[in-house]
Amino acid sequence: MTRYEAVIGLEIHVQIQTATKAFCRCEGDYNAPPNRNICPVCTGAPGALPVLSDEFVARAVRLCLALGARVNLLSTFDRKNYFYPDMPKNYQITQFFTPIGSEGRLLVTGADGVERAIGIERIHMEEDTARSAHLGERTLLNFNRAGLPLIEVVSHPDLKSGEEAAQYFKKIYDIAVKYLGICRGNMEEGNLRCDANISIRPAGSTALNTKTEVKNVNSFAFIAKAIDHEIERQIAIVEAGGEVESETRLWNPKLKRTETMRKKSGRNDYRYFNEPDLGPLRITAEFVEELRTTLPELPDDKRRRLREAYGINNEQLDLFIGYPAVCEYFERASSSATASFSTIAAWTSGELLRVEDKENFGAVQTPPEHIASLARLIDTKKVNGPQAKEIFAIMRETGSDPEEIVKNDPRFTAIGDDETAAIAAAVVADHPAETEKYLGGRENLLGFFVGQAMKRAKGKADPAKMSELVKKELTNRKK
Ligand SMILES: [Zn+2]
Q1: Backbone region of residue 389 per phi and psi (left: phi > 0; alpha: psi in -120 to 50; beta: other values)
Q2: How far apart are alpha carbons 202 and 35 in whole angstroms?
Q3: Residue 295: alpha-carbon gap to chain centroid
Q4: C-alpha span between 271 and 430 (Å, rounded)
Q5: Residue ranges per domain, the chain?
Q6: Helix, strand, or coil here: 6?
Q7: Within 13 Å and on the Cβ side, how many CA atoms surround 401?
Q8: CA of residue 270 to ligand 1 center, whole Å
Q9: Residue closest to 209 by CA, chosen among 220, 219, 201, 221
Q10: Cα(127) to centroid of ligand 1, in Å?
Q11: How far is the centre of ligand 1, averaged over its atoms, from the C-alpha of 157 (Å)?
Q12: From ligand 1's centre to the CA of 27, what distance in Å?
């Protein structure tokens, strides 16, 4: 049986948040009442001339740098000619001949756990079209979206599975939305859109076979499923002796399958030519370097540093990379404490996020120093697990430092080894029948003894120590 591998490339459109549209001074907010933010330029009135937004250029350069791409100091704006009702000029201004960015890269972790670089072929600036809504027989057009700045990021076909594609898409989302803050990131409103080009070939081959395009998989939940389904569909066709047809397909989330949208016949000829009303875009190396200094630490670098500095697990790394505010909190707690990083990471990602919203983490009231202080109490075994949870609740309610809470509340004064041993002995002495059964081989009764002893210690003993001492006491009775 032939084994197959998938060849996947993604085209991701990122809508850039700017004060004005890309080529006119209309407000860049398309949630205004329909057709409020429009002018002769973005509605394609004859003779209206485009003027490029500086803010758009600066944000495009920052995105190129963040994706590890080369910034081209000279790039071109070009016309892509086609007819569609949402674009009355009958062309879209894009960058076809020379984009602003070339040859970037991002890392993904493959199924084998090994990190691999995914190449980014080009990053180009363009304008969005109007939004159309279909109402029965009629189509409504909202030109608030026409002319909004868009950046398209085109990957090389280096991705191998739906899971890898989802990781890559999520990383671009994180960089644009959370790290650079240049995109609103509302997927339902189409702030980020993803089209996937997919083909298959026998594993190890270098052939590039007919591909299909799955359009508008604008959800992290669906992208992996849509791509994996499409790979399976193509394999089934080839296995049955058929041929994959070049077509555009759509993901149907209800039926969990891709469906034909339109067949592709030949290549579209968009008659690209340089946009005569704009001319080439020239920027200076100084401008690029100045913008480079405004970049935050980016996900791939951050992951490497966190892994080396704190030795935390992959799940926690994913969380901290995806939520920079949670990460900052963890790092502040770690810098203030003599507690172990793993305890601090566990409590930040566990208990704290059970009660706090990671999407809105900036508003957390509990200072990181308090989580650190609680972690120190746990690490030094001054409190046990159930006590720590209780202290956590009090700490959040009162805003007090856990050290203070423990000092002022006799319930949290852990009992010493002598007292623990005395309780262990008393509990064993009080249950002769169970002791006999235990010594006769019913070793699972140990849990019963420890439970009784912890109850008697009012939870103030260390459960591991108690278990050890109860076992010792029972074994002593053997003689
Ligand atoms: Zn306008």
Answers
A1: alpha
A2: 51
A3: 19
A4: 93
A5: 4-291, 299-412, 417-477
A6: strand
A7: 9
A8: 24
A9: 201
A10: 11
A11: 36
A12: 8
| Cα of 27 vs its chain's centroid, Å | 29
Residue 399 CA to ligand 1 center (angstroms) comes to 51
> What's the rounded Cα separation, in Å, for the pair 355 and 393?
10
Give the other-Cβ count within 10 Å of 73's Cβ: 13
Q: What is the CATH number of domain 417-477?
A: 1.10.10.410
Strand pairing partners for 71? 101
Both structure tokens of 470 = 């109860």
Q: What is the pTM of this model?
A: 0.82
Centroid of ligand 1 to alpha carbon of 321 (angstroms): 37
Place of tokens 């339109």: 262
Say which residue the tokens 């019913």 belong to.
Answer: 442
Helix (H) or strand (E) holding 123: strand 115-127
Q: From ligand 1's centre to the CA of 149, what distance in Å?
A: 12
Tokens of 45: 């009135």
Which residue from 459, 381, 457 is spatially nearest to 422, judged by alpha carbons?
457
Angle between helices 368-379 and 324-336 (to 10 degrees): 60
Q: What is the pLDDT along the chain (479 residues), one digit of tens a residue?
A: 678 999 999 999 999 999 999 999 999 988 899 999 999 999 999 999 999 999 999 999 999 999 999 999 999 999 999 888 888 899 999 999 999 999 999 999 888 888 899 999 999 999 999 998 888 899 999 999 999 999 999 999 999 999 999 999 999 999 999 999 999 999 888 899 999 999 999 988 888 888 999 987 878 888 999 999 999 999 999 999 999 988 888 888 888 888 888 777 666 788 999 999 998 999 999 999 999 999 999 999 999 999 999 988 888 999 999 999 999 999 999 987 678 898 999 888 888 888 888 888 877 888 889 999 888 988 888 888 888 898 899 888 888 888 888 888 777 777 778 888 889 999 999 999 999 999 988 988 999 999 999 888 877 777 888 899 999 999 888 76
**Cα radius of gyration (the chain):** 30
Q: Are 183 and 14 in contact (CB under 8 A)?
A: yes
Give the span between the Cα atoms of 330 and 369, in whole angstroms.
10
Cβ atoms of residues 230 and 199 within 8 Å: no
